[in-house]
Every structure is written in structure tokens, then in C-alpha cells.
Amino acid sequence: MSDRFEAVLITRDEDKNQSVDFVQMTEDDLMDGDVTVAVEASTVNYKDGLAITGAAPVVRRFPMIPGVDFAGTVIRSSHPDWYAGDKVILNGWGVGETHYGAYAGRARVSGDWLVPLPQDMSSREAMAIGTAGYTAMLCVMALQRHGISPDRGPVIVTGASGGVGSVAVSLLAKLGYEVVAVTGRMSEEDYLKGLGAREIIPREELSGAGRPLGKERWAGGIDAVGSHTLANVLSMTCYGGAVAACGLAQGMDLPATVAPFILRGISLLGIDSVMAPKSLRLEAWRRVSKDLDRDKLSSLSADISFRDVIAAGKDIVAGRVRGRLVIQM
User: Fold this and answer.
1) What CATH number corresponds to the domain at position 189?
2) Better-predicted residue by pLDDT, 80 or 300
3) Average pLDDT over residues 166-188
4) Burial of 309 from C-beta contacts in 10 A (0-12 / 13-18 / 19+)
């Protein structure tokens, strides 16, 4: 029998009541895949919190090992691109939702889902970035493709104290943008200014019902919140600007009008990190390894133990987590 390892397992009973516990498993218990990885580090994203708490139907197969991110070392592979000893990263692809995920000592996945760990990056640093940071980089890249350069004006980041927001603020600031950060915790003002934000806006200023068009205030935006917040960000985006949308912390609805699109030529750029093609993933990880200030990465991340995962999942959904949490396996 294979060596045993610890895992987090989400189960559901006949009445669809969910429970989550630490269990012992072996590699024989894992799902199919052509690459087996020793997981060295993972992280806690908002989606992981939703899976652990059952606050949203993230998990679509039971039982399930949650965790949408990991970094580690290949143990064995029958995939032509990977060999034992290779350092790899995984983000998304339904891992932690429909395929056993990262919160375990081992993971068996498709080699097509993996990307190489950048040579100048540790597994811990990769998970301090994680899906949140990789998604933030995809947002920045989308804005740049749309021509939103620093000379166009400020860029707003909503949910700025969270994982996506913290990395987005740091990336944009290092690239020379004037960053406007939105947070529900004004106590985090010093933290956000330390990451490079020039202006801090309280969440309440944008979270209520707004007008179809407001005063033009920013050239672009990165939104991880959705609902009224995204609608207000769009209504105040300058002519020809763009907003990259990647989250739904406030809600999936978008109570907006077409006015910003047809009167100011605004573009709403949808960002999907889960099923993004490999070419885009490789570019995002190349860019984030080059453009993210590693000193700032240390300040926006904290380490937790594997045994703290379940509690951290509850905390992130409750809005009690700042920046990024790294699970040292």
C-alpha cells in the first residue's frame, strides 16, 4: 500500500448536509491522472472558502478534496512534458471542484493542467501569488491589451484588501499606474498605501445603487466584487476606458445600464482563470515573476499550517483575511 498522507475531505449526506474533516488517505484513493505531485505549498482563495463552508455550490462532486492551487514536485509521470523532479504549479481546471484538489499531501492530475514553476521562484512564493495573483496578472494584461497605460489616468481596484486586490494594487503600482483602492476595512489604509495605492475609497461609496452615469474618475479598473460595485465602477470610468471583471464577492448580479458602453465607449473585460489556455497561463506567470515586487509579496502574505486550513476557509468568506494565506504542507 502507498504511504499515507493527510487530506481535507468534504462530504455530504443524503440530506445534502455538508461536512469537512481531516482524513488519512493513500495514493490509491486519488482520482485518475497521468502526473502525481508531492504538494509542497497551497493557499486559501475565496473560492476555497466557499467550498469549505458550502456558502456557494463550488463543489460539484462528493466527496471532494478542496483547494484550487498547489505548487510541488513531480513524483511520477506518464505525460510527455513532465518528469520526476520537475517543479510545477497548478491553478484551476476544476481541481477542488470536480477533481481532487490541493489540500492533501499528494495530487494526481492531468499533465496538461500544469505549468512549470519559474526558476527564480519557490513553491512558497508561487502560492503567495496563487490563483488570486495569477488572476490579478490576467486582469492587468487585459487592461494593457486594451491600451490602458499609466498615462491614461488612475486605475481602480475593488476588494483591494483581498487576495486578487492586494496583488493587483502591487502589480499596478510597480508598473507605474496611479492606483485607487476600494476596501471595506479602512483600517487597512496603511497596508494598501504600503502596496502602492495612492488613494483609498471606502467600500460604502460604491456598494449601493448608483446612477447610470457618474463623474469620470478613472481610466480603468480591476473588479473582484461584482453587483452594484461593478456597476458604479463602470458608470465612473472615463471615455474609452475598460474594466476587467474577475469576481463576485458582492454578488453575481450587475444592476447597470448600457449607458457607459454606448455613451462613453467603455469595455467590460471578462477574466476567467480556471480554464484559461496554457499559452496565457505561461505568459501570466512569466509576467508576474518579473513585474511583482517580491518585497511587497512578503508583506501581503502570511503562512498558516495545514491544520489551519478549515478555519482559514471560514475566515476568508467572513471577510477576516487580508492579502494572501500560504499553506506550508
Assistant:
1) 3.40.50.720
2) 80
3) 95
4) buried
Scanning 119-258, the segments in alpha helix (DSSP H) are 123-145, 163-174, 189-195, 204-207, 227-235
pLDDT for residue 1: 41
Q: State the Cα–Cα distance between residues 92 and 24, nearest whole angstrom.
A: 24
Q: Which residues contact 295 (CB under 8 A, 6 or more apart)?
A: none
110 and 142 fall within a common domain: no
Domain limits for position 309 = 5-117+299-328
Q: What's residue 128's pLDDT?
A: 93
pLDDT digits (tens, 9 = 90+) for 315-329: 999 989 888 999 988
Q: What is the CATH number of the domain that holds 21?
A: 3.90.180.10
Q: Say how many domains are in the chain.
A: 2
Co-location of 219 and 259 in the same domain: yes
As a three-state string, the secondary structure of 16-36 is CCEEEEEEEECHHHCCCCCEE
Evaluate if residue 232 carries a pLDDT over 90. Answer: yes
Shared domain check, 144 and 62: no
Report the pLDDT value the prediction gives residue 296, as an integer from 0 to 100: 86
